[in-house]
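Weekly puzzle thread! Below is a chain. First person to post its structure in token form gets bragging rights.
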Amino acid sequence: MLLSPAKMKTIDWLSQVREVAHPLSQARPYWVRTYQVGDKKAKPGAPLPPEQHPYCEFNMLLQGSGQQFIGPERFARKAGDLMILGPGIPHYGLAKAGPLRTITVFFLPTLLFELGPEADGRRVLSRFTSSTPASRRLIRPPAALSRNMASYFGGMLQEFEKPKPGSELRFRALLGMALTELLRWEAKQRPEPQITTGAYDWAMIERVLSFMQLHYKEQIYVQDIAKFAGLSQGRLQSTFRRAMGMSCMQYLRSYRITHACALLCLPGARVTEVAMEVGFETLSHFNLSFRKFCECSPSEYIRRRGRTLRAS
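Winning reply:
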């Protein structure tokens, strides 16, 4: 069951979208976040600020209810609902009342290519990255499937927070089982044609993503990426945008900024050093890009982060 959007009076929150600060890499291609409010009488605001990021996001609302904003649309959510988002999609969650609990899994698109860039990997990735109505990004599964999903999400959180030998293998297995059950259920429920995976060279997309993730600290430009991929610059940009929902340079800048956010949170961080560390040639370009993604300067980000840590 897909969720229907509610009429919105304002989309002002879109001007407050922030780039999230938990960087992923090929060495650490996934990250799990949980959010919980235990008091029934509590009426929390947004669990987290409006955000966007260069990752795939798989979320489950385990307990409670609220509203979910995706772009300019608003949806009602209740316990058991799932959400699937691709890179660069602005979104915002607003809780109604506690108790509330969510688990969110973030992962690099390249993680799904482990399933095979020309087989299951591309089909699953397309569910996250294809151009699709916001209503298709929120799913209300039946009770039995919802229980299975809750078990998978709980298992992924446990493997992430309390790693043991084999935790990375088990995490991938749980993520694969969750996505497999969901997509098979969707295939049975939806009479209309499934979203096409597109006539993309997914093996090339995988190589380009891996290239950028490995070399983001270096001075690379679209012509370098195009040369690596064996494509013209125009062909590269159009193919990448259709497959991933953003241009390759937008993805690269977003990827760099998320790493910069994490570095700026470290004690003694210096803005100029961070800018050079994540691949920006000039401080002015870094400041401009950072402000575009985060709606504040790097120095202000450090001050805000310091206040947040002192208050926590």
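Puzzle host: Confirmed. Bonus trivia for everyone else. The CA atoms of residues 128 and 297 lie 31 Å apart.
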